[in-house]
């Protein structure tokens, strides 16, 4: 077992971070508009406007849960041995090898050994892994169970479309974001992000640092992102019964 707050115990991991969601949005935008249109994320302090006359700025607005958690469990256990801080997995007995999670033996002798990175072999399968601590252990059955909480979220972002061609660019973005072409572009990013819908573009002139008006159209993009939160989970695979004579119970 382990103590709460111990530094070596891994914190929960998330399969889709905010940066990746914004990266997927940027890929969509740079695909559907001219290469001359620069796409940046908003709220960077002390950063001037892009030099390009046409550019887009993405601002986060809201993350709204779409459902309750859907929880699944993976009782991972493996056959392997440890030399110094290298875990060699010889056989998968159940599940796979989760990176970033604790690994245990039946005696509890590993003392907060976290699987940091895979060095070689089959992805999340047999092969060598680097551990967070140095241990030596003969061939044993090792346990690294996890719990996954799937919680789909509606991500809303505000998109500012600047420049002399902003009206046309906003119309292109609006149309393709609502189409199967947009769905395909997001799918090809490899991130679990899907466009849902977008609001109508609104013309909101922008006053720059020189007190000059610039063309700007604003629309809100709404997407579904599907992050999975992974935490450590131990399982009771076997029970060992021990009899206690009743005549010795006080």
Helix-strand topology string: EHEEEEEEEEEEEHHEEEEEE
Strand content: 35-45%
What's the tally of helices? 3
Characterize the main sheet. Answer: 6 strands, mixed
Gross morphology: elongated
**Structurally, how many domains make up the residues?**
2
CATH class of the largest domain: Alpha Beta
Helix content: 10-25%
- Please identify the structural class as seen in this structure: mainly beta
Give the number of DSSP strands. Answer: 18
CATH architecture identity of the largest domain: 2-Layer Sandwich
Radius of gyration: 26 Å
CATH homologous group name of the largest domain: Phage tail protein-like
| Quaternary class | single chain
Mean pLDDT value: 89
Terminal CA distance = 29 Å
Looking at CATH, which topology of the largest domain would you report? STM4215-like
Layout of secondary structure:
Elements: E1 13-14, H1 18-32, E2 38-41, E3 55-65, E4 70-74, E5 77-83, E6 86-94, E7 102-105, E8 113-121, E9 127-131, E10 137-143, E11 146-150, E12 153-162, H2 166-177, H3 180-188, E13 193-198, E14 202-203, E15 206-207, E16 213-214, E17 216-225, E18 228-232
Parallel strand pairs: 2-3
Antiparallel strand pairs: 1-18, 3-12, 4-11, 5-6, 5-10, 6-9, 7-8, 7-10, 8-9, 11-18, 12-17, 13-17, 14-17, 15-16
What does this structure look like?
The radius of gyration is 26 Å and the shape is elongated. It is mainly β and 250 residues long. Helices cover 14% and strands 42% of the residues. The chain folds into two domains: 13-69 and 150-231, STM4215-like (2-Layer Sandwich); 76-144, Thrombin, subunit H (Beta Barrel). It contains three helices and 18 strands. Strands 2, 3, 12, 13, 14 and 17 form a six-stranded mixed beta sheet that branches. Strands 5-6-9-8-7-10 form a six-stranded antiparallel barrel. It starts with 12 loop residues before the first strand and ends in an 18-residue tail after the last strand. The longest helix is centred in the first third of the chain and has 15 residues, at 18-32.
